[in-house]
Write a structure and sequence with these properties.
This protein is of the alpha+beta class. It contains four helices and 13 strands. The protein has three domains: 59 residues, no CATH class; 49 residues, no CATH class; 74 residues, no CATH class. It has a four-stranded antiparallel sheet with strand order 10-11-12-13, with helices on one face. Bound molecules: zinc ion (ZN). Zinc ion binds next to loops.
Length: 211
């Protein structure tokens, strides 16, 4: 007896919902079998195969091979998300209790690709935050270059979604180089050089201030 040969191309990738008893851990996996989806989903959650259940999620089949499943598709299928700005629960019948009129008012959800906002105000708030952080990042680059002329920056990280900004640099005589950062709470710059470069750094700073 031999198993019938399965043409790999004929095995369709389907969507499965992998779940534990914590609804927040549920995730959609695309696979050619229930067992494969279950293994992927368990890995994704960080638990073992036996702790998850797996069932078909027909609604998500159309997103196989796509970069992401839109938040709207999840919500239409009964899932829920936190608002991408304030964290409020957004689901298909999300509403809030209005104290003044003593009525339940439906939330006007705003979808944006893989995220959802509980209101247009929250979407605008999020966009303002992104813009502000990116602007701070640009200012940071200008500021660090002005504060320590003569160092060569090799890499910058910052802007949205980072909380703080950071630059890596090297300078004449350095073996390891250093970093400079600010933080969300403060715009004060923190300069750091590797222990092995301390002497070279002190010499560099002395040279700089002498000119
Ligand atoms: Zn919100």
């Amino acid at each position: 007896m031999s198993k019938p040969k399965v043409d790999p191309a004929s095995r369709k990738v389907l969507a499965y919902s992998v779940e534990t008893n914590d609804p927040e851990e549920s995730n959609i996996q695309f696979a050619t079998s229930n067992a494969a989806a279950r293994r992927q989903g368990a890995d994704n959650i960080g638990t073992d195969f036996g702790s998850v259940s797996c069932r078909r999620a027909h609604w998500a089949d159309q997103y196989a091979g796509q970069r992401f499943i839109p938040a709207k598709a999840y919500i239409d299928a009964g899932w829920w998300f936190g608002c991408n700005h304030c964290g409020a629960r957004c689901d298909s019948d999300a509403s809030y209790w209005d104290e003044e009129t003593e009525t339940d008012i439906a939330l006007d959800l705003v979808f944006d690709g893989r995220v959802v906002y509980c209101s247009a105000d929250c979407k605008a708030g999020h966009e303002a935050e992104v813009t502000a952080r990116n602007a701070r990042f640009e200012e940071f680059k200008v500021r660090v270059a002005a504060e320590r002329p003569g160092v060569t920056f090799t890499e910058f990280t910052g802007g949205y979604p980072w909380c703080g900004n950071k630059g890596l640099f090297t300078f004449p005589g350095a073996q390891y180089g250093g970093s400079v950062s600010d933080s969300e709470e403060s715009t004060e710059l923190k300069w750091y050089v590797a222990q092995g470069d301390k002497a070279a750094w002190d010499y560099f700073i002395a040279e700089q201030s002498a000119t």
